[in-house]
Amino acid sequence: MKEFPKAEALLKRLEDAGFEAYYVGGCVRDHLMGRAVHDVDITTNALPEQTAAVFEGYKVIPTGIRHGTVTVLAEGTPYEITTYRVDGSYSDSRRPDSVEFTPDIVQDLARRDFTMNAIAMDIRGNIVDPFGGRGDIEHSLIRCVGEPEKRFTEDALRIMRGIRFASQLGFGIEEKTAQAIIDMRGRLSIISRERVREELDKLLCGKDCGKVLTDYRVIIAEIIPEMVACFGFDQFSRYHKYDVYEHIVKAVTSAPQDQLILRRALLLHDIAKPQMFTLDENGVGHFKGHAKVSAEMAKEILTRLRFDNRTIALTSQLISHHSDKIHSERQIRLMVSEFGIETFLMLMDFKKYDNCGKNDFVLDENKEFDRFKVIAREFADSGECITLSQLAISGSDLTELGFRGKEIGTALAQLHSLVIIGDLPNDKQALTNYILNEINTTLE
Prior knowledge:
The chain is built from 22 helices and 13 strands. It is α+β, with helices and mostly antiparallel strands. The strands form 4 sheets. Strands 3-4-5-2-1-8-9 form a 7-stranded mixed sheet. The protein has a two-stranded antiparallel ribbon with strand order 6-7. A hairpin with a 5-residue loop joins strand 8 and strand 9.
């Protein structure tokens, strides 16, 4: 991999010292596929202490010395170098309880998850591929190394990795591997929520996300049990041509791959629809209040998956308002003030992608959302009062006028709204006059 000269120099140094050294795993897979390589892993028959000795003069960190891994810093870039090994049992379904070092590269490759990741390559481009990984790459196929049940017993997260790779790479999953993924999905419960969350996020941004969400929806339900009710749930609405889960998938995949925040929110945006469903006398389905309830459910789900508070708040905000009707420029100005310009623009895109999962005639509404974005940007760029801190009157001014406690916040909020919608100028004297003549009376 000429594009990584520092890594190549490390392999050469190991070889010059009389050891074998290979690039291994995902970096080789991506190199063979012509994809950009981001992380380079190196494997060698040198024992950890021998590796450390080879790189005397470098900063060497014993990051996983128990499992044979040391990290070598080459001009500030860290590279993990791991000794060929055979793994022992996996009592925690995450890491081996013990490892045994081996001089055989094939034995090392045999412990890896999928054949496409069980390929090694030296600095001359010579390939070691004992399990047919290169052929599986050529056939766009994900296959476990050896028995799938054993691989998924060792590390249950490989279940998620399998479908995540299918989404990212656009690969199919070999029949026995696919069946084991489905049959052993219950083992995901023993994996930390953080690890599952990371794999789910990567899956959502894959180019084949829609196919994977559809074909492996039972895996999604294992992570988000609340989703089961959405499967096959008919909406009985002229606005919809898909059931609830199909609509969710269409909406998710309508958002660009790099828009993780939107794709994640779209995955959960209608999750409360089944429980909020009513059927009127004409046989038409309604879901009144589903956005607010979906937002609350999303909070619970994202909290369970250990997302940070900011992500949870933004996601639930988008979901809570995704069905809001917008009727005027005044309303847009108030929403921009409340949400901030970036969140408002995100919400308009959210509504557009949501529409992409409905009947075709609904798409005409997307032109309006684009128009609302233009209005919002013009307002944000106008220099007008948008945030409360830009108001020409302050809390201390109100204190001098005799306001106390909660009265101050209530008065400021009212003045702010009136300025935003254009009913009052953002002028201190005008605001003071309004306070004395109107708000004081109201508060009394």
